[in-house]
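User: Hey, my collaborator sent me this sequence without any context and asked if I could get a structure. I don't really work with proteins. Can you help?
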Amino acid sequence: MRYKRLAKEAAWICNLPSRSDRDEKNSFSPNGDNINDYFYIQGEVNALVQDLFIYDRWGEMVFSSEDRFFQWNGGYNNDISRPLPPGTYSYVVQYIGSYRKNEGVKEKRGGVALIR
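Assistant: No problem. I've predicted the 3D structure and written it out in structure-token form, which is a compact way to encode the shape of the chain:
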């Protein structure tokens, strides 16, 4: 697993597996400066995201989405007026890949650091 920051990106990204080179980012800083303000998914363009869950360190779900193009802003249930504290959050993405749909639902797990 490699980690790389794209200087002009507005967010850090969780990549779903794709045929191209994988870049997985592991942190974001939602401070309103338009640099790394959101956590979102990038990768297989046609992947069908079934569910995405984000948990705090105690296992409480703090965000969920079925939208392939979600952007998590670091707020509880994506409510910017309820910012979550800095720390590491776990995510689970359940998706159907576009290259091998016959393999069914796949799952990707990881962590993302919220920096304030």
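In plain terms: The CA atoms of residues 45 and 86 lie 30 Å apart. You can pass these tokens on to your collaborator as they are.
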